[in-house]
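Translate structure to sequence.
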């Protein structure tokens, strides 16, 4: 029985690999056609998007690397924001409102209005850091998360990016 299950898993895995290889082959065929077209058009001094990208990379090779680095940072920040939002939703019973704020360095900075602002409720939210700082070495330093507790009256004076929806119930 175990070997039948293992055989089925291997068969399914093999089919998945074949599907991926087929998609890769299709993608490469399309890319090959684009390369051939770009080459032919370049012979008559017409630059395609591909030709322009190659030219830009040759003229400024670090720009592409920099853009990739920025894109990776932005994706990581989006994932961290999902962790923060999940933490806020888990503790929504103590939060009146929460906002992502705009900062000069585009940090992960949040303004939080607590229902009852006291040491216990703040510590409950600060529990996020207990787990966050256990992640990969230096991760929390590279992608810092800041919580700022503010009275409701001051929210209008903050540089708010967007309000975080905490209510998970569907109406």
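Result:
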């Amino acid at each position: 029985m175990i070997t039948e299950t293992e055989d089925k898993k291997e068969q399914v895995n093999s089919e998945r690999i074949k599907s991926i290889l087929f998609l890769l082959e299709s993608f490469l065929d399309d890319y090959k056609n684009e390369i051939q077209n770009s080459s032919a058009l370049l012979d008559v001094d017409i630059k395609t998007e591909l030709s322009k990208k190659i030219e830009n990379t040759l003229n400024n090779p670090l720009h592409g690397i920099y853009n990739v680095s920025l894109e990776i940072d932005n994706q990581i920040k989006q994932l961290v924001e999902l962790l923060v939002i999940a933490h806020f939703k888990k503790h929504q019973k103590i939060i009146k409102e929460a906002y992502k704020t705009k900062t000069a360095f585009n940090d992960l900075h949040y303004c939080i209005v607590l229902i009852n602002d006291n040491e216990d409720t703040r510590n409950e939210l600060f529990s996020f850091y207990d787990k966050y700082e256990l992640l990969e070495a230096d991760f929390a330093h590279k992608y810092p998360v800041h919580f700022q507790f503010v009275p409701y009256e001051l929210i209008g004076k903050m540089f708010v990016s967007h309000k975080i929806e905490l209510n998970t119930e569907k109406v």
